[in-house]
Amino acid sequence: MPIRPMFLAAPLLLAGVAGLTLAAQSDAAPFPAPPAEAAASGDQVAVLAGGCFWGIEGLFEHVRGVKSVTAGYAGGSKADATYGAVSTERTGHAEAVRIVYDPRQVSYGTLLKVFFSVGHDPTQVNRQFPDSGPSYRSAIFAQTPQQRQVAAAYIAALNGAKVYPRPVATRIETGAFYPAESYHQDFLRRNPDDSYIRRYDLPKLTALKKTWPTLWRG
User: Fold this and answer.
1) C-alpha dihedral, 62 to 68 to 74 to 79, nearest 10°
2) Residue 33, Cβ neighbours under 10 Å: how many?
3) Of 75, 85, 13, 83, which Cα lies nearest the Cα of 48?
4) 14-209 homologous superfamily
5) What is the rounded average pLDDT of the residues 133-139?
6) Which ranges in the chain belong to alpha helices (H)?
7) Using CA of residue 177, residue 178, residue 180, residue 185, what is the dihedral sign?
8) Domain map of the chain by residue range?
């Protein structure tokens, strides 16, 4: 099992991502609805990066309409798509997840709503709470021109509504997705008592269930 770096840098760290995002919402405007988008047919794919992929994968596994989630790497080359290489922070990869979803049940914009509101802190640059480096950056790997358009519009809406105390730092990128090693897959579900999972990732599930109950799938 890999060892995650653990250093406390931000005073909000102990509150966890759920506390930060929900506090930001209560102090500012209500969280904006996702932008309108054209209807899609057939299963669709979203690729998102928001810090350690364990928690992001585990979160989206509980979103209604999501059919599968795979942890992996995006933004770099296939040759460097290994945990050892990505951990050097020199590959260009971000820890990411590939989400296969049914657009009849959940829209791309709704996935982004979950991502921005309870998935991570989108104002942090090249880090996500205890994890530091560009592989932990906040990024959206748009799979279609429409996804790029929806993502850009949502980021603009979040900044315009001043939902967070700082501007959204999420980057909209391109790049292939490569699955991570088998021991990373379903890590949260298989290791619910892991100290990292308990401290940083389980609060995201609690926040999803509380904030967007109609999206929760047990």
Assistant:
1) 140
2) 11
3) 75
4) Peptide methionine sulphoxide reductase MsrA (3.30.1060.10)
5) 98
6) 16-27, 53-60, 83-86, 108-114, 145-161, 187-190, 195-196, 202-211
7) positive
8) 14-209
Residue type, 106: V
Q: What is the DSSP letter of 18?
A: H
18-65 pLDDT, tens digit per residue, is: 444 443 443 445 789 999 999 888 999 999 999 999 999 999 999 999
Q: How far apart are CA 68 and CA 60, in angstroms?
A: 8
Residues noted as catalytic: 52
**Residue whose structure tokens are 């990411």:** 96
Q: How far is CA 132 from each of CA 31, 51, 55, 200, rounded to the nearest angstrom?
A: 27, 9, 16, 14
- Residue 8's nearest CA partner among 200, 206, 154, 143 is 200
